[in-house]
Specification:
This protein has 81 residues and is mainly α. The chain has two domains: 43 residues, no CATH class; 30 residues. It is built from four helices and no strands. Helix 3 crosses helix 4. The mean pLDDT is 87.
């Protein structure tokens, strides 16, 4: 992800190093290390494995895998594959 593709709020968070205060944003996450922004997290880390996500959320790998399967099931219903 290029820094140029980020929304202005994420660019501002990256340039100032401040955390995002906008909890109403769809991209807001409770993770101050990456300015509370999922887009900043992706920009800094790239794609993450399910195991990395589990460690960050402090839940088991199995639980993250279950959530992934549920999300994929919902998406497949929406796009009617």
């Amino acid at each position: 992800m290029s820094k140029y593709n980020l929304p202005e709020c994420a660019k501002l968070c990256l340039s100032t190093g401040e955390t995002c205060p906008n909890k109403d944003c769809r991209m807001w996450i409770d993770y101050e290390t990456e300015q509370n922004c999922s887009l900043v997290s992706i920009y800094q880390n790239g794609a993450m494995t399910l195991e990395e996500v589990a460690k960050r959320l402090e839940v088991s790998f199995v639980r993250v895998s279950q959530i992934e399967k549920q999300a994929l099931k919902k998406l497949s219903k929406r796009i009617k594959i």
